[in-house]
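Hey,
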Amino acid sequence: MNWVLVPQQIATGILNGGIIALISLGVVLIFKSSEIFNFAHGHLLMLGAYVTWWFAGGNQDGTEVFNLPLIPAFLIAVLVAIVVGLLIERFALRPMTGQPLLSIVLMTLGLALFIEGVVSLVFGVQPSAVFPSPFSPSAVFRVPFPGAMGGFIILKKTLVLSFGAAMLASIAFALFFNFTKTGLAMRATSEDHELARSVGLNVPRIFGLSWAIAGVIATVGGILLAMLTGASLNLSTVVLVAFPAILLGGLDSFLGAIVGGITVGLVQALVQASSNIEVRNSAEIAPYVVLLIVLVIRPEGLFGQKRIERI
């Protein structure tokens, strides 16, 4: 282990983990409300990033299209995410009600391919060179820290902003889900669909709202990632990093999604601090190794509910 890199990697890992945690929340929300593991979440994330870039950035050849400020472009992307989420639930998933779970999972995979095809046709396959950001890519904070390389921990301002925005969005969502009337209705529906119907809750409406909120969460996550890496089709693959975070924390736990996301970010960063190049190259595999160890000890994840069914 290269110990002089450890403080830097810990700080970077926590900041990256915050974005992973936000992305994980969207997948957990859909699973809690409808017991569907949404494999299209990464592509919703990619779509939100591209829509924001389209309104705030430029065309494939670098020419400006709308050239809106980032905030109005973000609001437009949020509206698009809400509409797309509602359309997915109404026309793709509601007709699948009562079908085998595998069929519904395959439907989300089909949605992922469909979204990728639409994005490729509308926005092109070339990644954007520049994504609008409040800070320059080279803008950094230098935090004095004895023991770190050069005596400083260097943090990109864009990464710090992304972490702060991800944590604020996660907290806002948790407050909404736990303390608002609509959030309580969503919690009730997630526990038992039939019981929710029996007390007068509109379950299809709640499902649609869940997909709309998941689309907004994905859009926010996509924008935060795109500010760091640019908008590209590869953004959809970030959900592969979120999967171990979701399972590590527990499929039905929002707190678990946050803890799991930060844990995955830390694990990847610490592996990259190794002095062994082969170990560093296994950074993408390391979270799955940690996940395997945790699931052997606690199959439902760190914060997942252990359900007991009586016969």
